[in-house]
Amino acid sequence: MSRLPACSKTLSRLPPYLFVKLNAVKEEARKRGHTLIDLGMGNPDRPTPVHVVDALCDAVRSDPATHRYPTTKGSQELRKAIAGWYFRRFGVTLDSETEVLPLVGSKEGLAHLFFAYLEPSDVALVPSPCYPVHYNGTLLTGAKVHLMPLTEENGFLPEFSAIPASVAKKAKVLVLNYPNNPTGAVLKDPRLFERAIAFSKKHGAIVVHDNPYSEITFERYCAPSFLQVPGAKERGVEFHSFSKSYSMAGWRVAFVVGNAEIIANLGKFKSFLDYGIPGFVQAAATVALNSSQDYVLQMREIYMQRRDTLVAALIKAGWPVEAPRATMYLWARLPEPFRKAGSFAFCESLLLEEGVALAPGVGFGPHGEGYVRFAFVDDERKIEEAVERIARFLKNARPGGKRPARAGRTLLPTDL
Ligand SMILES: Cc1ncc(COP(=O)(O)O)c(C=O)c1O
């Protein structure tokens, strides 16, 4: 019998998705008898607001039209609700016919936008560290990826002036994400967006701003929209998601707004691949945007308390960290003795020894090496217990000692 053909070269160049790899280690930790505390993936643990769940149930029960194929473009009600929310929240006016497109999650939308725009001769400008889909999604198109380092020294902001002219010339997509995953960095003013627009005008790349954490902000910080900056709509788009704002990660619903031409191209691409979001999910998402936003305020409060608990416990355990002003993530530099072995080895050992899952920084790109990401997606009691276990691990572990620590590996291959 002849062998099955191999998958495409582009696909085989990608390592398994970070969280898939970590799941295998979690399985092993469970087999060793640990009750896991999972602060690895940014998977909101709070239930979706009750009125949104009710809206889905009503729609699926009383409106059989929602059982039929939806359209890629999304319902007019949802598109109008998105435009209305954008105006109320950011003061940005959108044409709900041409400047708004609902998505089956922003992961889907981002990946398809990259396919709609990139070819092997093109370059995508992607931050490092980044949400892995920014990197892997662009790489899957066959395009080259040029990484823009985000470091503590540069305030986790990319420096466009460091991009070589030969790369800038070929750049077709420029990806940004603030509040940032995984670093938790926020923008204090619109200057980065202004520089991105100027770069785009000079070199021709479209700006893709990924903004799923705009509602998860603390104290008095209020996250901006890229589209608030003059000229933004001429040069790019912004992605938003219901996953984090309304704890709807499993519902798979998000949207992209901004430049009509880019949105039309993404809509055309998607029309060949998917039918859009189930009608009853769209009906519920419409209610989420059009009704009271009290849930968002409560959720912010909950995440902030968890953040404070985590920061205080880590500092007490001798691990100095800084509290982020947004997102559900704490980006922490590995304690010195563990840096040589690398973040994946640290997370693997911590899981196997103590049953605590964190995300290794290297999984977000080479510049993430030396860090781990805590996601505060469990209650305060569990967070405290996780840090107690971590404190024990730090005390007992002998980095570089007898236990074979695997060398730090770059899970995201660097091509350019
Ligand atoms: C920066 C960023 N963009 C997009 C996503 C995916 O969002 P969605 O659930 O809408 O696909 C995530 C999820 O963690 C994220 O961190």
Kindly describe this structure.
The protein has 416 residues and is α/β, with parallel strands linked by helices. It folds into 2 domains: 141 residues, Aspartate Aminotransferase, domain 1 (Alpha-Beta Complex); 241 residues, Aspartate Aminotransferase, domain 2. Strands 2-8-7-6-5-3-4 form a 7-stranded mixed sheet, with helices on both faces. Strands 9-12-11 form a 3-stranded antiparallel sheet. A two-stranded parallel ribbon has the order 1-10. Helix 6 links the parallel strand 3 and strand 4. The longest helix is centred in the C-terminal third of the chain and has 23 residues. The chain binds pyridoxal-5'-phosphate. The site of pyridoxal-5'-phosphate has 13 residues, from helix 5.
Secondary-structure blueprint:
Blueprint: H1 9-13, H2 18-31, E1 37-38, H3 50-62, H4 76-90, E2 100-103, H5 106-117, E3 123-128, H6 132-140, E4 144-149, H7 165-170, E5 171-176, H8 191-203, E6 206-210, H9 232-235, E7 236-241, H10 242-245, E8 254-258, H11 260-271, H12 279-290, H13 294-316, E9 329-333, H14 343-354, E10 356-357, E11 359-360, E12 371-375, H15 380-396
Parallel strand pairs: 1-10, 3-4, 3-5, 5-6, 6-7
Antiparallel strand pairs: 2-8, 7-8, 9-12, 11-12
The protein binds pyridoxal-5'-phosphate.
Strand content: 5-15%
Q: What's the CATH class of the largest domain, please?
A: Alpha Beta
Largest sheet: 7 strands, mixed
What is the helix/strand order?
Answer: HHEHHEHEHEHEHEHEHEHHHEHEEEH
- How would you write the strand order of the largest sheet? 2-8-7-6-5-3-4
The CATH topology of the largest domain corresponds to: Aspartate Aminotransferase, domain 2
| Ends apart, CA distance between termini | 40 Å
SSE-based structural type? alpha/beta
The global form is globular
Number of domains: 2
Looking at the overall shape, the CATH architecture of the largest domain is 3-Layer(aba) Sandwich
Give the ligands present. pyridoxal-5'-phosphate
- CATH level-four homologous superfamily name of the largest domain: Type I PLP-dependent aspartate aminotransferase-like (Major domain)
Low-confidence stretches: 401-416
Mean pLDDT: 93
Radius of gyration: 21 Å
Helix share of residues?
40-55%
Number of strands: 12
